[in-house]
Amino acid sequence: MNPMDMARAERTDLATFLKTLTPDQWDSPTLCSRWSVRDVVSHMISYEEHNMADLIRRLRTAKFRLGRLNDVAMAEYRHLQPAELIGFLHGHLTPTGSTAGFSGGVGLVDALIHHQDIRRPLGLQRTIPAERLRYALPFATKAPPLRGFWHARGTRLIATDLDWSYGRGPEARGTAEAVLMVLAGRPTVAQELTGPGAAVLQRRLDR
Q: Per residue in 150-159, pLDDT tens?
């Protein structure tokens, strides 16, 4: 599959999963600090169909503080009810706007990480197709918004269930999914890694 096909498949899996959640689960916390499940889904769809003019408008609202841009974008969709959010996602299984970047790679990695942001705190595990992880891991080391290259600096990350590694330094080992979430800066997941580099990552991401 190419990145766009994988993005469509990942969004389909996510939409199917979201249909199973209860109202209480939609208000549950996620791995994204301060954001509930509803917030994360609102954030995910908030960059569909938007162009540069929309970005500039949102930046003005955020007073040109990049750290507030996601909050501003998400707020435009947070009023939607769960069924409406799922309906929007179903109508945008193929990434458009900025999420279509890198032939759909942005949409794939964004959906994959946020899918796990939601599932992990709810204790609802899944098996992620290996081909999606093989694409997402190197992508996460290069994508500026994820800052994977910065999070992993000075360590060597090794996926124990895929033939993939990255970086130099003391080793930190874990599943490909856990490694991806660490590259995305999720501190609680760093506790699942083993090896001398794991302690380095745990201290760094806990700050």
A: 999 999 999 9
Contact by Cβ (8 Å): 108, 3: yes
Count the residues in the chain.
207
Domain residue limits, the chain:
3-122, 133-206
User: CA 174, CA 171: separation in Å to the nearest integer?
Assistant: 10
Coil vs helix vs strand at 151: helix
Instruction: Report the distance separating Cα 9 and Cα 4, nearest Å.
Output: 9
pTM of the full structure: 0.90
Q: Residues 171, 195: contact at Cβ < 8 Å?
A: yes
Helix (H) or strand (E) holding 23: helix 23-26
Looking at the predicted structure, is the pLDDT value of residue 94 above 90? yes
